[in-house]
Structure prediction request, 429 residues.
Amino acid sequence: MSEPQSPLHIPDFLRLLGARLLAVLSTLSMVVLIGYQTYDVARSDYGMDRPEAAFQLGLLGLAQFIPLLLLTPVAGIAADRLDRRKIVLFANLIDGAIALLLGLFTYEDALNLPILFTLAALHGTARVFNGPAFSAIAPNVVPASLLPRAIAFSSIAWQGGTVVGPALGGLLFGYSASLPYFLSAAMLAASGLLIMGIRPIRAAHDGEPAHPLRQILEGGQFVWRQKFILGCVSLDLFAVLLGGATAMLPVFARDILAVGPEGLGIMRGAPAVGAASVALLLSFRPIERHVGPKMLFAVAVFGAATIGFGLSTNFVLSLAMLALLGAADMVSVFIRNTLVQLRTPDNKRGRVSAISGLAISASNELGEMQSGIAAAFLGAVGAVVFGGAGAIIVTALWAWIFPELRKVQSFDQPPEEPDKANQLKESAP
Prediction:
């Protein structure tokens, strides 16, 4: 039987794409509206001023991050030892229950900050199990030669959901505040059905499983010793932690650009428009040369676009800056994900994906916390500009600290570790 020429010729991969699209549509719609309602409830029901209400958005990010920090090791082991489809289904069930509760509380006009923070923390719990399992499925259903294109197509599904989900949620919210939550619950159920249609997935491993603590240690040691992977993961952590403007979008939508929840949905989807456009291009013409330098350059552009968004007072210009930072981030994500997946053994993919997911979540949720704290002192505009400048500085530092990032030229030719390169030089005649 001949090998397929495209990931789109593989039925299980098509099911995976559909499941990802529906899950992202639902959860992004839900998360964006939670942020808007948190800010609105803080301002309207609790009488908080703008900086204090913005700080609540930072606390909301922290509420989502704490479960990720505590449960990531468990989620990584689960993805390496259990049926990855069932783990994703479990996460979908949690998020579906959250969506139903949000819909009911919103319908009854009974939302308050404790409820929003609690449900946000439960969403963080679902995410910590969903991420490693979902990420590890694609290499099991797609040949290695097609993995870069598969990651690009998967990114299109992700970014497509990121574009449509928040915009759809914002529009439906204006019609009926509870409707987008009930729709999210239905889409999560459909996503779970598609995932269970994929053949059983379980990572390969030899012999009896080691003690759970030993398995956690092995995953951490692998990332620490693979300096390129460590550099990729930590670059994303610190650059996005500083440069993320997402937490401040409700402030810009309500008080700076005055575009309301409908405008918030459009703004939240703007980065994904840029990212989806780049992902579509990469699905047909993947990056093949100078991948390391291009990844670093993309992160620097991400920081510069963040500064541009923070300084803008024009809605159209703000959307353009958000689209640009999304496009730059997509280049970085594509290169990083492809290299990490190709250089990680299957029996460690769950744990490595969990560590990578923790870094991504830390950059997002703790980035929201950092933005909230910065906004309390600098204002929303100052916080975003400060973060964008920080992302550029981090990129320059990482290019120096991890020369492996600058030296890698292609996906199939990993850069040499410095000590290995020196040994080769010493042994040369």
Remarks:
- The chain has a mean pLDDT of 79.
